[in-house]
Automatic annotation (TrEMBL), chains A, B:
SUPFAM superfamilies hit by this protein: ACT-like (SSF55021), Glyceraldehyde-3-phosphate dehydrogenase-like, C-terminal domain (SSF55347), NAD(P)-binding Rossmann-fold domains (SSF51735)
Pathway: Amino-acid biosynthesis; L-methionine biosynthesis via de novo pathway; L-homoserine from L-aspartate: step 3/3; Amino-acid biosynthesis; L-threonine biosynthesis; L-threonine from L-aspartate: step 3/5
Protein's name according to its UniProt entry: Homoserine dehydrogenase
Function noted in UniProt: Catalyzes the conversion of L-aspartate-beta-semialdehyde (L-Asa) to L-homoserine (L-Hse), the third step in the biosynthesis of threonine and methionine from aspartate.
UniProt keyword annotation of Manganese present: no
This protein's record includes keyword Amino-acid biosynthesis: yes
Length: 423, 423
């Protein structure tokens, strides 16, 4: 069974190492040895401390994919092109594919699944979401007899590290980001993480899997964590909550909603104790009830472990002559606009400390048919803090409410607005 | 694709209901409909509110298994015989089997796996451990390219409910047990749960899966929770821990140890916040790192969801003509005796409040080469409480230490001894 490895960075290096170290185990599990046919890299002549002959390295990725002795292509380069071309070429030739390419899957997963089904090959990508956490396989297979209603995940380790540090130390966002950068948990340019782009790509992949429908990253409503303040975290704590960047995919009849935004969740929720760079995905299904999958969300070795798990499954399928189960989408669900999604809001207002403020504010909520769950008013001398937590209402109604609250004469400032989940 | 269902209790009823409700979805996922060929029950004439014709019910389980049109046998009767006979008969005829029978798998899983491999059929049993939590599939498949070093689980909902209530309310064991019985979380005869027999069976299955070797329930060291006291829980809290009934399977070279006993774990450990009747399994693997799987550990619908997931996988394998991957054991690991296992102990002693007690006690630890991590002495007037937490030592050395401590003149009573895990 011969493998073409495309890319040999952090994860690819660990894959090569594991293939070497575990070769006897892998051969026993598959029924024959897994052999590296070649490794495509940009600089094949670079010195590498890897237990493989140097002649395996090549700069010609497409040539390697096209080699007739290659059975499985492992794509770890990332990005849309040329990765998509390599993957579709491989599948058209009847080769199975293992990839960790979340950008490509989030943009064009449906097409890739259709191509895999048409060629009768496997397309596995456990490494694309939450690294080593076995997640896609359970969603695709174990819960097949069930109906998933909602998936709520912490799928970005950088933002979870930052929010965890803010919670532990009371630090502000910038300070926690600097710490994350110093410790290597955040990149020099952290945009993809802190603005929620990375989580949105993973949300699209998770939604597609959970609901067997096409969702792309551009369908995902997205807010990052840059405006989360130390006082938001403190407000959350006051109501027994913590702040997390959540990706939420839920199904309501023939509609799905997919969104990424910071939210308050109760400390008793299993996701609340997922701290630091760890990831977790909480799944609600009609029969199975509440499930959670927890583990390392990044890192060379954990991600390589996911790639190896896929490789074994794909190799066994090929050896047994199994035609891959078609994963092509068959539900045609529509993605609902964020404005129509029902959520709860936690709103903090700096107001004048005078009679009638609460009545005026309550009227604004009533005008927009937003029902209030709790109100707390803390006088601070001249001004007061008014904290309102709403019942569920459409996001559009809540947004309009906040806009109008800001215009009330007694409201000095809308100090913070955050969605509340997991209640 | 025709299914013989053996047993129609709590779980079987939900399986029938899900097969009916989800029939269109299931047919789409498998590529053809799943059809019930018959349902074997003790009393076929009993009135049942199920969406299937009454003539499907039969008292002749073996006759149903033998029917040539049956492709898959779902065994939900439990117990060793006659379930084993039905399962082996089915497999010998080339029929795949889905079961939730943990007693049988814990006693004779190796033989069943060999029989499945010999006949080239699937043997799936996701429902046997931690009900709906997709666990066996990830252990069998997703982590195939990795090496699992340790599995630590909360796999019995009854005991977890009792210990959670003791922690929340300060109640003693008997009081919490009564409450669990009142609420239906514990049986009238709770022995199998509170003495750890149920957890030991699951531990054997988990160990076999994690380490690809034969482990039976009788190989599992077992202590229940009947001697866990309110003061143990309070002592745990004082050192930032909670008490859980853990099943622990670990591998050290060519040896495995499998044990079930109450233990203190730090509140920061992901298993610490698994409360009530929920189950969770924490997995440590060389490459994947730390993973956790969380969900409902019992209940008709969650367990039925696991059965359905297996059914879909098995049906798809049959339809694709896949020969089942052999799960026969290939590692021949030996099970280490509990005395050789290294653990940490938390020991509380009621001692005379006088000079020299600590020195005498410390000498006993030193004599057995058990290293002390922390000591706390709280005077209470005439007597004192001496609490010692050790570093890791063999269980035999720790047990001998405790035996000798009890004989010291100044020691009035060994108030409690509990292992400490997850540090």
């Amino acid at each position: 069974m011969k493998i073409a490895l495309l890319g040999c960075g952090n994860v690819g290096t660990e894959v090569v190492r594991l293939l070497h170290e575990q070769s006897a185990d892998l051969a026993a599990r598959i029924g024959e040895p897994l052999e590296l046919a070649g490794i495509a890299v940009r600089r094949p002549d670079k010195a590498r401390d890897l237990p493989v002959p140097r002649e395996l390295f090549t700069a010609d990725a497409l040539g390697l994919v096209n080699r007739p002795d290659v059975d499985i292509v492992v794509e770890l380069v990332g990005g849309i092109e040329p990765a998509r071309g390599w993957i579709t070429t491989a599948m058209a030739q009847g080769k199975s594919v293992v990839t960790g390419n979340k950008a490509l899957l989030a943009e064009d997963g449906g097409t890739l699944h259709d191509a895999a089904a048409a060629s009768g090959v496997d397309l596995y990508y456990e490494a694309a979401v939450a690294a080593a956490i076995p997640l896609l396989r359970p969603l695709r297979e174990s819960l097949h007899g069930d109906r998933i209603t909602k998936v709520t995940g912490i799928v970005n380790g950088t933002t979870n590290f930052i929010l965890s540090r803010m919670t532990e130390t009371g630090a502000g966002f910038s300070e926690a980001l600097s710490e994350a950068q110093d410790l290597g948990y955040a990149e020099a340019d952290p945009t993809a993480d802190i603005e929620g782009f990375d989580a949105a790509a993973k949300a699209a992949i998770l939604a597609g899997l959970a609901f067997h429908t096409r969702v792309t990253a551009s369908d995902v409503y997205r807010e990052g964590i840059t405006s989360v303040s130390a006082s938001d975290i403190a407000s959350a704590a006051q109501m027994g909550c913590v702040v997390k960047l959540l990706c939420i995919a839920s199904r309501d009849g023939d509609d799905v909603t997919v969104r990424v935004h910071p939210a308050m969740i109760p400390t008793s929720h299993p996701l609340a104790s997922v701290n630091g760079a760890y990831n977790a995905v909480f799944v609600e299904a009609e029969a199975a009830g509440r499930l959670m999958f927890y583990g390392a969300g990044a890192g060379g070795a954990p991600t390589a472990s996911a790639v190896l798990g896929d490789l074994v499954a794909v190799a066994r399928n090929r050896r047994s002559g199994a035609r891959a189960a078609s994963e092509s989408t068959y539900a045609d669900l529509s993605v609902r606009h964020m404005g129509e999604v029902t959520t709860r809001y936690h709103i903090s207002l700096d107001v004048d400390d005078q009679a009638g403020v609460l009545a005026a504010a309550a009227q604004v909520f009533a005008d927009h048919r937003v029902s209030i769950q709790t109100v707390r008013q803390d006088g601070r001398g001249d001004d007061a803090l008014l904290v309102v937590v709403t019942h569920k209402a459409t996001d559009a109604a809540l947004a309009a409410t906040v806009e109008e609250l800001a215009k009330l004469p007694a409201v000095r400032q809308v100090a913070s607005v955050m969605r509340v989940e997991g209640g």
